[in-house]
Amino acid sequence: MQSEINRTLKTNFDFPHSPVYVQVATSVNNIPTIRTLRLYDVSKEGEMIFLSHTQTRKWTDLSKNPYMTVHALDKDNNQLISSGRATLHIPAEDKNYINYWENLTQDDKKLYAGPPPNQKLETAPPFFVPEKVPATFGVIIMKPNFYEWYEVDWQDLTKSTRTQFLFGQHRWVKKKVHPA
């Protein structure tokens, strides 16, 4: 299954060479929220990996309700949809995820910085690179239970295809869905 996802991402999105931005939906108290995130990696197990500031609404939403849905459109408007359970990791507390911090550019690291210690926000320089991984840097890992690839034939919509990958009984099952 993971090879199917990697093939789809590589063929249709040029991933990991080109950035892939996806729409991520969460829900708390039956109120849905959607936002854009960059997909940073896909694990050997097919888990989708995102990076996030830990003081954002998405982090708070996922800490209250860990289920999320991801949606991506390629250049031809074909769709990748996935749903699953997210786990939240803070590399400052769990060194298993420190490699994500180490691979960020210096500019990206600035996004996770607060004011320097003992300095008020209004007198702090606008951006700086933290000396160590801050507690505001988080890793979101979504373990999917569902993937779907919808390939649209814009000349003849009846030739469009929808392929689903469902996780059940410790394995992935691939099925074509008709009508697409």
Q: Would you give the CATH topology?
A: Pnp Oxidase, Chain A
In total, how many domains does the architecture comprise? 1
- The side-by-side strand order for the widest beta sheet comes to 1-2-3-6-5-4
Main beta-sheet annotation: 6 strands, antiparallel, barrel
Q: How widely separated are the two ends?
A: 20 Å
Radius of gyration: 18 Å
Give the overall shape, derived from the CA principal axes: globular
SSE succession:
HEEEHEEHHEEE
User: Strand-residue fraction?
Assistant: 35-45%
Task: Write structural notes for this entry.
With 180 residues, the protein is α+β, with helices and mostly antiparallel strands. The protein has four helices and eight strands, in the order αβββαββααβββ. A six-stranded antiparallel barrel has the order 1-2-3-6-5-4. A hairpin with a 2-residue loop joins β1 and β2. It is globular, with a radius of gyration of 18 Å.
Task: List strands and helices in order, with pairings.
Elements: H1 2-13, E1 20-28, E2 31-42, E3 48-53, H2 57-64, E4 67-73, E5 79-89, H3 98-102, H4 106-110, E6 137-151, E7 161-168, E8 171-177
Antiparallel strand pairs: 1-2, 1-4, 2-3, 3-6, 4-5, 5-6, 6-7, 7-8
